Amino acid sequence: MSALIEIRDVSKAYTRGRQSVEVLHHVTLDILQGDFLALMGPSGSGKTTLLNLIGGLDSPTGGSIAVGGKRIDTLGGTALAKWRSENVGFIFQFYNLLPMLTAQKNVEVPLLLTKLSAAERRHNASIALTLVNLADRASHKPNELSGGQQQ
């Protein structure tokens, strides 16, 4: 079975004032197609940083990252944004829902980055809400949903 994600000698450092803080130090990892993986470690160990790198939300300081055979560490801003919109879905710890929009409209928001028509966005969002048993809550605003429903 081939690797879906190939991480080679990846490092990531952030600058805090005059200090450089290395969060990841020469990480090499393959994640095979179909694998189920849990990243575990203490706070500050680089779990979120690694996920942000794999998802194209951040770029490594060194090394390479390939997802589905495509080197994402070499993509520029526009190409990387296009790649993310076509290949990555995120569920954030903080939901970042727009409080003035209904659940239906909040689900549609990321679809604005696609070439889908308004009708296709509505249809796809409706399907997504049905899949997670929230079709009956589609017209509710975030403050009318439980924490789990918001997530």
What does the secondary structure layout of this molecule look like, with pairings?
Blueprint: E1 3-16, E2 19-32, H1 47-54, E3 62-67, E4 70-71, H2 77-87, H3 103-108, H4 118-131, H5 147-150
Explain this structure.
- It is built from 5 helices and 4 strands.
- The protein has a 4-stranded antiparallel β-sheet with strand order 2-1-3-4, with helices on one face.
- The model has no long low-confidence stretch (mean pLDDT 91).
- It is of the alpha+beta class and 151 residues long.
- β3 and β4 form a beta hairpin.
Instruction: Outline the biggest β-sheet.
Output: 4 strands, antiparallel
Discrete helix count: 5
Low-pLDDT regions: none
Residue share in helices? 25-40%
SS elements, strand count: 4
N-C termini distance: 33 Å
Provide key terms for this protein.
alpha+beta; globular
Summed up, what is this model?
This protein has about 150 residues and is an alpha+beta fold.
